Protein backbone atom coordinates (compact mmCIF):
# COMPACT_ATOMS: atom_id res chain seq x y z
CA UNK A 1 0.00 0.00 0.00
CA UNK A 2 1.81 3.08 -1.24
CA UNK A 3 1.47 6.77 -0.50
CA UNK A 4 -1.14 8.85 -2.27
CA UNK A 5 -0.17 10.21 -5.65
CA UNK A 6 1.21 13.71 -5.59
CA UNK A 7 2.07 13.57 -1.89
CA UNK A 8 5.55 12.63 -0.73
CA UNK A 9 5.99 11.05 2.70
CA UNK A 10 8.12 13.03 5.15
CA UNK A 11 9.60 12.29 8.60
CA UNK A 12 6.99 14.60 10.18
CA UNK A 13 3.98 12.53 9.11
CA UNK A 14 5.66 9.13 8.70
CA UNK A 15 8.03 6.82 10.52
CA UNK A 16 10.63 5.95 7.92
CA UNK A 17 13.11 4.11 10.17
CA UNK A 18 11.64 1.90 12.90
CA UNK A 19 13.74 0.90 15.92
CA UNK A 20 13.38 -2.40 17.79
CA UNK A 21 11.33 -0.90 20.64
CA UNK A 22 8.71 0.40 18.20
CA UNK A 23 8.75 -2.90 16.33
CA UNK A 24 8.13 -4.90 19.51
CA UNK A 25 5.41 -2.47 20.61
CA UNK A 26 3.57 -2.86 17.32
CA UNK A 27 3.77 -6.64 17.63
CA UNK A 28 2.25 -6.45 21.12
CA UNK A 29 -0.59 -4.22 19.91
CA UNK A 30 -1.16 -6.50 16.90
CA UNK A 31 -1.28 -9.64 19.06
CA UNK A 32 -3.87 -8.12 21.41
CA UNK A 33 -5.84 -6.89 18.39
CA UNK A 34 -5.80 -10.45 17.04
CA UNK A 35 -7.11 -11.72 20.38
CA UNK A 36 -9.93 -9.16 20.33
CA UNK A 37 -10.70 -9.97 16.70
CA UNK A 38 -10.98 -13.71 17.44
CA UNK A 39 -13.04 -13.25 20.61
CA UNK A 40 -15.49 -10.71 19.19
CA UNK A 41 -15.97 -12.49 15.85
CA UNK A 42 -16.55 -15.79 17.66
CA UNK A 43 -19.08 -14.33 20.09
CA UNK A 44 -20.86 -12.35 17.37
CA UNK A 45 -21.24 -15.55 15.36
CA UNK A 46 -22.46 -17.46 18.42
CA UNK A 47 -25.06 -14.87 19.42
CA UNK A 48 -26.21 -14.59 15.79
CA UNK A 49 -26.75 -18.34 15.67
CA UNK A 50 -28.69 -18.29 18.94
CA UNK A 51 -30.85 -15.42 17.62
CA UNK A 52 -31.73 -17.48 14.56
CA UNK A 53 -32.32 -20.80 16.35
CA UNK A 54 -33.67 -19.42 19.63
CA UNK A 55 -36.65 -21.82 19.73
CA UNK A 56 -34.28 -24.71 20.45
CA UNK A 57 -32.77 -23.06 23.53
CA UNK A 58 -35.00 -20.35 25.02
CA UNK A 59 -38.54 -19.58 26.04
CA UNK A 60 -38.51 -16.35 24.02
CA UNK A 61 -36.39 -14.76 21.31
CA UNK A 62 -33.14 -13.21 22.52
CA UNK A 63 -33.34 -10.97 19.46
CA UNK A 64 -35.98 -9.03 21.41
CA UNK A 65 -33.81 -8.81 24.53
CA UNK A 66 -32.72 -5.20 24.19
CA UNK A 67 -29.79 -5.52 26.58
CA UNK A 68 -28.33 -8.38 24.55
CA UNK A 69 -28.84 -6.49 21.28
CA UNK A 70 -27.01 -3.45 22.69
CA UNK A 71 -24.08 -5.61 23.80
CA UNK A 72 -24.11 -7.18 20.33
CA UNK A 73 -23.67 -3.70 18.83
CA UNK A 74 -20.86 -2.94 21.30
CA UNK A 75 -19.07 -6.13 20.26
CA UNK A 76 -19.49 -5.17 16.62
CA UNK A 77 -17.83 -1.81 17.35
CA UNK A 78 -14.98 -3.60 19.15
CA UNK A 79 -14.63 -5.88 16.13
CA UNK A 80 -14.18 -2.89 13.79
CA UNK A 81 -11.62 -1.36 16.12
CA UNK A 82 -9.61 -4.60 16.25
CA UNK A 83 -9.57 -4.70 12.44
CA UNK A 84 -7.92 -1.29 12.44
CA UNK A 85 -5.22 -2.33 14.90
CA UNK A 86 -4.48 -5.51 12.95
CA UNK A 87 -2.76 -3.24 10.41
CA UNK A 88 -0.02 -2.90 13.05
CA UNK A 89 1.39 -6.17 11.67
CA UNK A 90 1.69 -4.50 8.26
CA UNK A 91 3.69 -1.60 9.71
CA UNK A 92 5.90 -3.99 11.68
CA UNK A 93 6.64 -6.09 8.61
CA UNK A 94 7.49 -3.00 6.54
CA UNK A 95 9.49 -1.44 9.40
CA UNK A 96 7.80 1.83 8.42
CA UNK A 97 4.59 3.77 9.09
CA UNK A 98 3.83 5.71 5.92
CA UNK A 99 1.20 8.42 6.02
CA UNK A 100 -0.80 9.33 4.20
CA UNK A 101 -1.32 6.02 2.44
CA UNK A 102 -4.14 3.59 1.77
CA UNK A 103 -3.19 1.53 4.84
CA UNK A 104 -2.97 4.66 7.00
CA UNK A 105 -6.37 5.88 5.84
CA UNK A 106 -8.06 2.52 6.49
CA UNK A 107 -6.46 2.15 9.92
CA UNK A 108 -7.34 5.67 11.03
CA UNK A 109 -10.93 5.41 9.78
CA UNK A 110 -11.58 2.00 11.36
CA UNK A 111 -10.06 2.95 14.70
CA UNK A 112 -12.09 6.15 14.91
CA UNK A 113 -15.33 4.42 13.85
CA UNK A 114 -14.80 1.58 16.32
CA UNK A 115 -13.94 3.89 19.20
CA UNK A 116 -16.74 6.41 18.62
CA UNK A 117 -19.43 3.75 18.06
CA UNK A 118 -18.35 1.72 21.10
CA UNK A 119 -18.47 4.89 23.20
CA UNK A 120 -22.01 5.69 22.06
CA UNK A 121 -23.22 2.15 22.73
CA UNK A 122 -21.70 2.18 26.21
CA UNK A 123 -23.78 5.29 26.90
CA UNK A 124 -26.83 3.69 25.25
CA UNK A 125 -26.45 0.65 27.51
CA UNK A 126 -26.30 2.92 30.56
CA UNK A 127 -29.37 4.96 29.57
CA UNK A 128 -31.35 1.86 28.64
CA UNK A 129 -30.54 0.12 31.92
CA UNK A 130 -31.57 3.09 34.05
CA UNK A 131 -34.72 3.54 31.95
CA UNK A 132 -35.70 -0.05 32.72
CA UNK A 133 -35.03 0.46 36.42
CA UNK A 134 -36.93 3.74 36.67
CA UNK A 135 -39.96 2.92 34.51
CA UNK A 136 -40.12 -0.89 34.80
CA UNK A 137 -40.38 -1.30 31.03
CA UNK A 138 -38.36 -1.27 27.82
CA UNK A 139 -38.68 0.69 24.61
CA UNK A 140 -41.02 -0.54 21.93
CA UNK A 141 -39.33 -2.82 19.42
CA UNK A 142 -39.69 -0.31 16.60
CA UNK A 143 -38.46 2.58 18.75
CA UNK A 144 -35.51 0.50 19.89
CA UNK A 145 -34.49 -0.33 16.31
CA UNK A 146 -34.71 3.36 15.40
CA UNK A 147 -32.49 4.24 18.37
CA UNK A 148 -29.84 1.63 17.45
CA UNK A 149 -29.84 2.77 13.81
CA UNK A 150 -29.49 6.39 14.94
CA UNK A 151 -26.44 5.55 17.07
CA UNK A 152 -24.71 3.95 14.09
CA UNK A 153 -25.73 6.89 11.91
CA UNK A 154 -24.18 9.45 14.28
CA UNK A 155 -20.99 7.36 14.64
CA UNK A 156 -20.62 7.05 10.86
CA UNK A 157 -21.28 10.77 10.43
CA UNK A 158 -18.61 11.82 12.94
CA UNK A 159 -16.09 9.41 11.42
CA UNK A 160 -16.82 10.51 7.86
CA UNK A 161 -16.61 14.22 8.69
CA UNK A 162 -12.86 13.91 9.27
CA UNK A 163 -11.95 13.13 5.63
CA UNK A 164 -14.78 15.33 4.34
CA UNK A 165 -13.50 18.40 6.21
CA UNK A 166 -9.77 17.63 6.27
CA UNK A 167 -9.42 15.96 2.89
CA UNK A 168 -7.93 12.63 1.93
CA UNK A 169 -4.64 13.40 3.71
CA UNK A 170 -6.33 13.75 7.11
CA UNK A 171 -5.09 10.41 8.51
CA UNK A 172 -1.35 10.37 9.17
CA UNK A 173 0.97 8.79 11.68
CA UNK A 174 0.00 9.69 15.25
CA UNK A 175 2.55 7.89 17.38
CA UNK A 176 2.62 4.22 16.45
CA UNK A 177 -0.59 4.06 14.39
CA UNK A 178 -2.51 6.32 12.03
CA UNK A 179 -5.13 8.82 13.06
CA UNK A 180 -6.18 12.45 12.52
CA UNK A 181 -2.98 14.42 12.05
CA UNK A 182 -1.79 16.74 14.78
CA UNK A 183 -2.33 20.05 12.94
CA UNK A 184 -6.10 19.38 12.99
CA UNK A 185 -6.54 19.55 16.76
CA UNK A 186 -10.03 21.02 16.46
CA UNK A 187 -11.19 17.98 14.48
CA UNK A 188 -9.59 15.67 17.03
CA UNK A 189 -11.44 17.43 19.83
CA UNK A 190 -14.85 17.91 18.19
CA UNK A 191 -15.06 14.55 16.40
CA UNK A 192 -13.49 12.34 19.03
CA UNK A 193 -12.13 13.46 22.41
CA UNK A 194 -15.09 15.60 23.42
CA UNK A 195 -17.47 12.69 22.95
CA UNK A 196 -15.16 10.21 24.65
CA UNK A 197 -14.87 12.25 27.86
CA UNK A 198 -18.59 13.05 27.91
CA UNK A 199 -19.49 9.38 27.58
CA UNK A 200 -16.87 8.08 30.02
CA UNK A 201 -18.03 10.27 32.89
CA UNK A 202 -21.64 10.54 31.74
CA UNK A 203 -22.11 6.77 31.85
CA UNK A 204 -20.86 6.60 35.43
CA UNK A 205 -23.23 9.44 36.39
CA UNK A 206 -26.19 7.68 34.73
CA UNK A 207 -25.46 4.44 36.56
CA UNK A 208 -25.15 6.34 39.84
CA UNK A 209 -28.69 7.65 39.37
CA UNK A 210 -29.91 4.13 38.63
CA UNK A 211 -28.33 2.59 41.70
CA UNK A 212 -29.65 5.39 43.92
CA UNK A 213 -33.12 4.59 42.60
CA UNK A 214 -32.67 0.89 43.36
CA UNK A 215 -31.39 1.72 46.84
CA UNK A 216 -34.47 3.85 47.49
CA UNK A 217 -36.69 1.03 46.21
CA UNK A 218 -35.28 -1.38 48.80
CA UNK A 219 -36.40 0.80 51.69
CA UNK A 220 -39.43 -0.40 53.70
CA UNK A 221 -42.70 0.94 52.37
CA UNK A 222 -41.34 1.65 48.92
CA UNK A 223 -43.90 1.15 46.17
CA UNK A 224 -41.95 -1.05 43.77
CA UNK A 225 -42.17 -4.42 42.11
CA UNK A 226 -41.72 -7.81 43.77
CA UNK A 227 -38.49 -8.66 45.56
CA UNK A 228 -37.65 -11.22 42.85
CA UNK A 229 -38.05 -8.66 40.07
CA UNK A 230 -36.08 -6.08 42.04
CA UNK A 231 -33.20 -8.49 42.56
CA UNK A 232 -33.17 -9.41 38.85
CA UNK A 233 -32.95 -5.75 37.86
CA UNK A 234 -30.24 -5.16 40.43
CA UNK A 235 -28.12 -7.98 39.01
CA UNK A 236 -28.67 -6.78 35.44
CA UNK A 237 -27.71 -3.22 36.40
CA UNK A 238 -24.47 -4.37 38.00
CA UNK A 239 -23.71 -6.46 34.92
CA UNK A 240 -24.26 -3.53 32.55
CA UNK A 241 -22.19 -1.22 34.78
CA UNK A 242 -19.20 -3.52 34.20
CA UNK A 243 -19.16 -2.57 30.50
CA UNK A 244 -18.99 1.16 31.29
CA UNK A 245 -16.21 0.64 33.81
CA UNK A 246 -14.26 -1.55 31.39
CA UNK A 247 -14.61 1.02 28.61
CA UNK A 248 -13.39 3.81 30.90
CA UNK A 249 -10.35 1.82 32.04
CA UNK A 250 -9.49 0.78 28.46
CA UNK A 251 -9.79 4.23 26.84
CA UNK A 252 -8.99 6.83 29.50
CA UNK A 253 -5.16 6.41 29.43
CA UNK A 254 -5.01 6.94 25.66
CA UNK A 255 -7.42 9.90 25.72
CA UNK A 256 -5.43 11.49 28.55
CA UNK A 257 -2.18 10.98 26.64
CA UNK A 258 -3.59 12.58 23.50
CA UNK A 259 -4.91 15.54 25.48
CA UNK A 260 -1.47 15.95 27.07
CA UNK A 261 0.07 15.98 23.61
CA UNK A 262 -2.30 18.76 22.57
CA UNK A 263 -1.10 20.73 25.63
CA UNK A 264 2.54 20.40 24.50
CA UNK A 265 3.32 17.77 27.14
CA UNK A 266 4.25 14.83 24.96
CA UNK A 267 4.28 11.47 26.82
CA UNK A 268 7.00 8.97 25.88
CA UNK A 269 6.38 6.31 23.23
CA UNK A 270 6.29 3.61 25.94
CA UNK A 271 3.20 5.28 27.40
CA UNK A 272 1.38 5.09 24.07
CA UNK A 273 2.38 1.44 23.65
CA UNK A 274 0.78 0.70 27.01
CA UNK A 275 -2.28 2.82 26.24
CA UNK A 276 -2.63 1.22 22.80
CA UNK A 277 -2.48 -2.28 24.28
CA UNK A 278 -5.29 -1.36 26.69
CA UNK A 279 -7.25 0.32 23.93
CA UNK A 280 -7.23 -2.65 21.58
CA UNK A 281 -8.04 -5.06 24.43
CA UNK A 282 -11.62 -3.75 24.61
CA UNK A 283 -12.90 -6.54 22.37
CA UNK A 284 -11.70 -9.54 24.32
CA UNK A 285 -12.47 -7.86 27.67
CA UNK A 286 -16.10 -7.23 26.64
CA UNK A 287 -16.33 -10.83 25.44
CA UNK A 288 -15.16 -12.12 28.82
CA UNK A 289 -17.62 -9.80 30.57
CA UNK A 290 -20.47 -11.24 28.52
CA UNK A 291 -19.46 -14.78 29.47
CA UNK A 292 -19.54 -13.76 33.15
CA UNK A 293 -22.75 -11.71 33.12
CA UNK A 294 -24.88 -13.49 30.51
CA UNK A 295 -27.20 -15.23 32.99
CA UNK A 296 -27.98 -11.94 34.71
CA UNK A 297 -29.02 -10.47 31.36
CA UNK A 298 -30.99 -13.50 30.15
CA UNK A 299 -33.09 -14.16 33.25
CA UNK A 300 -36.29 -14.03 31.18
CA UNK A 301 -35.08 -16.26 28.35
CA UNK A 302 -33.36 -18.82 30.60
CA UNK A 303 -36.62 -20.53 31.55
CA UNK A 304 -36.14 -23.46 29.26
CA UNK A 305 -37.06 -24.17 25.64
CA UNK A 306 -40.54 -23.66 24.30
CA UNK A 307 -42.83 -26.65 24.83
CA UNK A 308 -43.69 -28.72 21.80
CA UNK A 309 -47.24 -28.42 20.49
CA UNK A 310 -49.54 -31.39 20.96
CA UNK A 311 -50.77 -33.17 17.89
CA UNK A 312 -54.51 -33.24 17.13
CA UNK A 313 -54.76 -36.92 18.18
CA UNK A 314 -53.07 -36.16 21.50
CA UNK A 315 -55.43 -33.25 22.11
CA UNK A 316 -58.47 -35.43 21.37
CA UNK A 317 -57.13 -38.19 23.63
CA UNK A 318 -56.60 -35.69 26.45
CA UNK A 319 -60.08 -34.27 25.98
CA UNK A 320 -61.74 -37.73 26.07
CA UNK A 321 -59.88 -38.69 29.21
CA UNK A 322 -61.21 -35.62 31.02
CA UNK A 323 -57.96 -33.69 31.31
CA UNK A 324 -57.21 -30.29 29.84
CA UNK A 325 -53.63 -29.93 28.64
CA UNK A 326 -52.32 -26.40 28.81
CA UNK A 327 -49.97 -25.73 25.94
CA UNK A 328 -49.32 -22.01 26.37
CA UNK A 329 -45.95 -20.75 27.51
CA UNK A 330 -47.78 -18.24 29.70
CA UNK A 331 -49.37 -21.13 31.59
CA UNK A 332 -46.36 -23.34 32.22
CA UNK A 333 -43.39 -20.97 32.24
CA UNK A 334 -43.05 -18.73 35.25
CA UNK A 335 -41.10 -17.45 38.19
CA UNK A 336 -42.25 -18.10 41.72
CA UNK A 337 -42.11 -15.61 44.60
CA UNK A 338 -38.58 -16.65 45.51
CA UNK A 339 -37.35 -15.82 42.04
CA UNK A 340 -37.02 -19.47 40.97
CA UNK A 341 -37.30 -19.76 37.21
CA UNK A 342 -38.37 -23.00 35.64
CA UNK A 343 -41.23 -25.04 34.17
CA UNK A 344 -44.39 -25.05 36.26
CA UNK A 345 -46.51 -28.19 36.04
CA UNK A 346 -49.93 -28.11 37.64
CA UNK A 347 -52.10 -31.22 38.01
CA UNK A 348 -55.67 -31.26 39.33
CA UNK A 349 -57.32 -34.53 40.35
CA UNK A 350 -61.07 -34.57 40.91
CA UNK A 351 -62.44 -37.20 43.32
CA UNK A 352 -66.19 -37.86 43.64
CA UNK A 353 -67.29 -39.56 46.88
CA UNK A 354 -70.91 -40.73 47.27
CA UNK A 355 -72.48 -41.92 50.48
CA UNK A 356 -73.04 -45.73 50.35
CA UNK A 357 -76.06 -45.59 52.67
CA UNK A 358 -78.36 -43.38 50.69
CA UNK A 359 -79.04 -42.94 47.01
CA UNK A 360 -80.11 -39.36 47.59
CA UNK A 361 -77.23 -38.37 49.83
CA UNK A 362 -75.28 -35.45 48.46
CA UNK A 363 -71.99 -36.21 46.80
CA UNK A 364 -68.80 -34.58 47.96
CA UNK A 365 -66.21 -33.25 45.53
CA UNK A 366 -62.57 -32.98 46.54
CA UNK A 367 -59.93 -31.33 44.37
CA UNK A 368 -56.27 -31.85 44.99
CA UNK A 369 -53.71 -29.69 43.19
CA UNK A 370 -50.02 -30.26 42.99
CA UNK A 371 -47.43 -27.93 41.61
CA UNK A 372 -43.81 -28.49 40.94
CA UNK A 373 -40.99 -26.68 39.21
CA UNK A 374 -38.37 -28.14 36.98
CA UNK A 375 -35.28 -26.15 36.11
CA UNK A 376 -33.58 -26.56 32.77
CA UNK A 377 -30.17 -25.00 32.46
CA UNK A 378 -28.55 -24.37 29.15
CA UNK A 379 -25.42 -22.71 27.85
CA UNK A 380 -26.22 -19.29 26.45
Topology:
Layout: H1 20-52, H2 66-86, H3 88-94, H4 102-135, H5 141-166, E1 171-173, E2 178-180, H6 185-217, H7 227-262, H8 269-279, H9 282-297, H10 312-320, H11 329-332, E3 333-335, E4 341-353, E5 364-374
Antiparallel strand pairs: 1-2, 3-4, 4-5
Helix pairs in contact: 1-2, 1-3, 1-8, 1-9, 2-4, 2-9, 4-5, 4-6, 4-7, 6-7, 7-8, 7-9
Keywords: Membrane, Transmembrane, Transmembrane helix
Protein name: G-protein coupled receptors family 1 profile domain-containing protein
InterPro entries: Glucose_rcpt_Git3-like_N, GPR1/2/3_C
Tell me what you see in this structure.
Strand 1 (171-173) and strand 2 form a beta hairpin. The longest helix is centred in the middle third of the chain and has 36 residues, at 227-262. With 380 residues, this protein is mainly alpha-helical. The chain has helices at residues 20-52, 66-86, 88-94, 102-135, 141-166, 185-217, 227-262, 269-279, 282-297, 312-320, 329-332, and strands at 171-173, 178-180, 333-335, 341-353, 364-374. The protein has a three-stranded antiparallel β-sheet with strand order 3-4-5. It starts with 19 loop residues before the first helix and ends in a 6-residue tail after the last strand.
Amino acid sequence: MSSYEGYEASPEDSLLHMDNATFNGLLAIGCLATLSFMFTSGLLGFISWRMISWKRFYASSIGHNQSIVLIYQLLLADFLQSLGFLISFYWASARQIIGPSDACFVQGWLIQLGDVSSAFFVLAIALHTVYQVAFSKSLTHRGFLVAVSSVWGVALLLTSLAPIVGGRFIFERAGVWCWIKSDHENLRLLLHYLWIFIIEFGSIAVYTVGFVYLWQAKKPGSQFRSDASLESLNKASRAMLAYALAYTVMTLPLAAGRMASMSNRQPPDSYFFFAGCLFTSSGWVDTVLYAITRRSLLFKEMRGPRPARLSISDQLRSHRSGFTRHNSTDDILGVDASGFAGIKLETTVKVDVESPTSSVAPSHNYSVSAKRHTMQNDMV
